[in-house]
Amino acid sequence: MAKIPIMLQLNGNWDNFGRFREFEVDGIVVDDDASYSLLISTIAHQLMIDTSEKIIEIKYIVNEHCPPMEIRNDMSVRVYMETKKENKNLGSYPLCITVRDFNMELSITNENTVAGSSGILKLLDMPISPVIEEYEIMIITDSTPSSIEVGQVYQDKETIATAMKHYSVMHKFQFRVKRSSARSYWLICVSENCTWHFKATSINDSAMFKVRNFDNQHTCSLMDNTSIQRKPTAMVVGSMVIPKYSDPKTIYTPKDIQLDMLSEHDVNLTYMQAWRAKEKALQFLRGYPVDSYNKLPSYLYILEKTYLGSVVRLKKTEDDCFLYVFVVICTSISGWEYCRPVVVVDGTFLKSSYRRIMLIASTMDAAGTILPLAYAVIDSENDALWK
């Protein structure tokens, strides 16, 4: 029976990309055949957690391309231990610990919640208790709320931090962070004599943050603050211009961002700052290109299994990077029998981070309409044969 050293990461929070941030560190040693109950009791004893009042959630990250895996039963522990045996270093595969209060276990399901496009999640039909009644309000998921008030609850610290940056741009002033941790977020005005301040803290050690104190009246000269105001980050400006890119047909250039930010918010951006803001806005809407490429094998597999008889080919480099893809749907193959024996191939440049060229082969059927036959993504148009 071997002993396995395990690092514990606690009092942190999960970001939108499945990474555990701003955590504290501890450690335990358990047997490699430990059960789920033994693992929970060992963690609770080391961290001094009363399991009669608290719920311990355990997750770990396998790799950056996979969402966190949760340990919830004996089989989950067994899978983790077998993975851990391959690398017994203390820092490998740390356990990310989240502790929640039983009374604050807000189980959000389709039956008791309703979500809208405004970025607000409202809890419905929750049992009434002195603890829950206080938080039976709207949980804000939007980082650009119309107003910020005492009592608001945000889904996590990252959301409330971005909301405050957006707020400072809209009201043309600058703040500085006085204190920031996994449990608190405290802002003050850049002017030393100003009474403006903002305080938010986590709710019962959860990821949610509640606005506790907010004095939005400045006792300093805002003109002075405006003159020393730093440029807003690309993330803030990007979140402000997201509606401009909701329609793919809309052309909204970095130059347009410069002009709108200057005319609407009196913020002067350089072209590169506006370009980065555009990239951030597109990332918010479409995600990261690398994530899309990682999903391509799964997409092609489902495509081939759903449309039997289709021809799907994916070619990678020796280091497992994307090279080519070729797709012919079964309906196009069967439809070719009734089409004119003429094939037209056209290509277009993919304006993404990785460039590439997309080729489409099409023909004309008996009714005179265009029928797509196949499409492919390649590195360039050439005469090379792909086997």
TrEMBL record:
This is Uncharacterized protein LOC107816716. It comes from Nicotiana tabacum (Common tobacco).
